[in-house]
Each structure stands twice: as C-alpha cells, then as structure tokens.
Structure prediction request, 192 residues.
Amino acid sequence: MVKLTGLKKIKTAVFISGTGSNLKNLIKFSKIKNSPISVNLIFSNTTKAEGLKFSNQFNIKKYISSFKGSKIAEEKILNLLKKNNIKFICLAGFMKVLSKSFIKKFSGKIVNIHPSLLPKYKGLDTHIKAIQNKDRVAGCTVHFVTAKLDSGKIILQKEVKISKKDNPTSLAKKVLKQEHKLYPASIKKIFS
Ligand code: GRF
Prediction:
C-alpha cells in the first residue's frame, strides 16, 4: 500500500450507484487537514445516482458509464483514472462487480464498505437477512476488494445492536450512521 509521505494527499476516486451519503461523508473527511486522501473523481454506473449531485456541490469531476462489465467500458474508466492520477478507489454503494483484470490493475488499492459484519451476509439484502434470522447484532465492514465478492481482507468493523423494534429500514439507518464513522477511520488506518 502507498504510504502517505509529506503533505500530498492520495488522489482518490469514489464509485457510487445511489444516494451517496458515504461519498458525501468521504468528501468532507478528505477536506480535513490530516486526511490521507483527496476525492478527485466520482464515478457512477448510472445517471440516476442521487450522489452525483455532490459533484457540482463540491466541484469534483464526475464520470458516468453504464458499464455493464464490458472490457471496453472498463478500459475507458481505467484510462480516466490514469489521466487523473487516481491512486486509490473507494467503493461506496457501488452496485456493479468489477472484473478480475480491473481489480488486478488496482491491486490493494480498492476498498469497499459493506453493511454487515463480514463474512456474514455477503451480497445484497443484509438487513433483511439479519432481521429474518433474529440476529441481536448487525454492523458494517470496510475491506479490501478482491476478485471474490465481499471477501477481501477486513480493515475495520463496527457492531450495531439490533433492538426488538428494528425493521430493515431502521436497522439500515443505524448501520449507515456507523458506516460514516467507519469509512474514514479505515482509510486513516490504511495510510497510517
Ligand atoms: C451503504 O449501506 C453501503 O454499505 C452499501 O450501500 C449503501 C450505500 O449508501 N454498500 P450511500 O449511497 O453511501 O448512502
């Protein structure tokens, strides 16, 4: 992993597909003086991602490509990342699976946030599964991205208690609040 030397922040791209609350949180974090990263590019696989509004709000370049996992689409993204000197990628609610070759080109430099205590509940609908299984504890995980879905080395995790009154929506809200603390803490840990 690239270590932070001097005052230069590591140029980072955040990949999104939806609301972008983690994106907004990472942008705010990146502006703190001793944050190791600067957010220089927002990538979305859909024009419908609400989080794209943060591009205008914070004056950060955005790029949208429907992606569909095609090699040509990935090549275009890789070129763009290279052109913008991007050295680190944060997936934040990004709903597409990156190809093995893409991940290899950014090996050890892509991280993801997942709304469960991995290795429990990889993939989608984590909160529904936790409620259905009557779990007492849920949580979130920040991990390195490898070719195997939600399986890379864990950087940090945070537990969230599930109360009897919780439903998937209320649980998602509670977990998201913790995600906003966990992602910056994980990035600090990586580059410390
Ligand atoms: C988060 O819960 C994240 O863990 C999951 O998708 C959600 C994205 O939320 N992968 P947001 O777009 O960052 O608000």
